[in-house]
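[Discussion] Sanity-checking designs against the backbone

I'm trying to build intuition for which residues belong where. Below is a structure token string of 368 positions. I'd appreciate it if someone posts a full sequence so I can compare it with mine line by line.
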């Protein structure tokens, strides 16, 4: 097999910095460096406790995407508790019928800096998971447009398959959508509701936004080759839950681009706005001829993020569609912005409280 030219994962630390003995080289003051040591020590304790409770190493594969020459592979390496063989939980897991309380998604313990082998066809790449056990890397490989499979083999785990959607060079339209309060009603910004929705609420109790699944379905029928990217500030721990929610509510298949909470190499907390802006910029470089329909809501920072990206890259934005929160949703979400004045924008903006209203306005733009 060939060995792929491997780029350093964007979300992973450089191998030199991954060595715990090199924490003194991290940027920041002594308190920040101490926080890293404490975080690593706490994770070591979690690993010991998890092993005592018979947790086992597991690689989780997420859907990836890419071009005919470069693909983005996503996954995570955790210690998790597998269902008892023959149990109801195992049967539900095998059939995708789980009804999981939110807190259970956070019981897995990340295995930091684990070696991972990625195989795509005859190409093999070797990477390391980052501090949160996340695999987010690019592999150079020649593939035809359509669906392909990457096999991830982490040290001490069973190999798993990740679906990779390869986009043809002549595809010029793509869809980027937020999740919280856009395709799923969550009222995320308000802290107590965020905790309730994330950690307590049963995943089947989460509500789909009216008309949004139909809108997304119509868009993918009108543009069958268009990639769908779900870009959210939600944590990677919730990725399996979100994937099941999207599938259960008949949203089109698409790659999830989430983030990780907690310490990074140079910040106390990850910035959700930076995460979204960084990934939009990355998509614009990965698909330089693509125009994106950006879908979000007016309860967080989507308008500002999308506006900033569109002002810098007007030729790469087909339109911006903003879901307006209802009065009750805006109260739960801590308020919402007023419809902005976009008369000087080179990109069309549309506002609607539901998918049906968005569909009517997108039809006037010849996007539906």
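Best answer:
Here's mine. Compare freely.
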């Amino acid at each position: 097999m060939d060995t792929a030219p491997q780029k350093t994962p964007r979300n992973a630390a450089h191998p030199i910095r991954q060595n715990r003995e090199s924490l003194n080289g991290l940027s920041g003051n002594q308190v920040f460096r101490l926080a890293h040591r404490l975080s690593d020590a706490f994770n070591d304790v979690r690993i010991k406790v998890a092993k005592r409770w018979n947790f086992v190493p597991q690689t989780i594969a997420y859907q990836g995407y890419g071009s005919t020459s470069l693909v983005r592979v996503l996954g995570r390496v955790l210690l998790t508790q597998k269902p008892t063989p023959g149990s109801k939980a195992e049967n539900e897991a095998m059939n995708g019928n789980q009804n999981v309380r939110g807190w259970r998604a956070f019981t897995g313990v990340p295995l930091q800096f684990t070696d991972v082998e990625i195989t795509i066809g005859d190409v093999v790449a070797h990477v390391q998971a980052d501090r949160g056990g996340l695999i987010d890397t690019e592999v150079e490989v020649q593939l035809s447009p359509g669906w392909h499979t990457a096999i991830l083999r982490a040290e001490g785990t069973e190999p798993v398959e990740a679906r990779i959607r390869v986009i043809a060079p002549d595809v010029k339209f793509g869809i980027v959508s937020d999740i919280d309060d856009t395709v799923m009603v969550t009222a995320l910004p308000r802290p107590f509701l965020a905790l309730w929705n994330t950690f307590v609420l049963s995943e089947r109790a989460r509500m789909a936004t009216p008309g949004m699944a139909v809108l997304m379905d119509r868009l993918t029928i009108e543009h069958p080759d268009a990639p769908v990217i779900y870009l959210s500030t939600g944590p990677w721990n919730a990725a399996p839950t979100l994937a099941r929610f999207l599938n259960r509510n008949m949203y089109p298949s698409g790659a999830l681009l989430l983030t990780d909470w907690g310490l990074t190499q140079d910040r106390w907390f990850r910035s959700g706005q930076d995460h979204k802006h960084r990934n939009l910029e990355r998509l614009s470089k990965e698909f330089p001829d693509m125009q994106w329909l950006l879908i979000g809501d007016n309860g967080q920072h989507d308008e500002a993020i999308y506006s900033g990206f569109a002002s810098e890259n007007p030729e790469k934005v087909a339109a911006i569609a903003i879901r307006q929160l209802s009065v009750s949703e805006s109260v739960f979400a801590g308020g919402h912005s007023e419809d902005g004045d976009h008369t000087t924008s080179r990109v069309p903006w549309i506002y609607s409280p539901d998918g049906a209203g968005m569909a009517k306005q997108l039809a006037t733009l010849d996007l539906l």
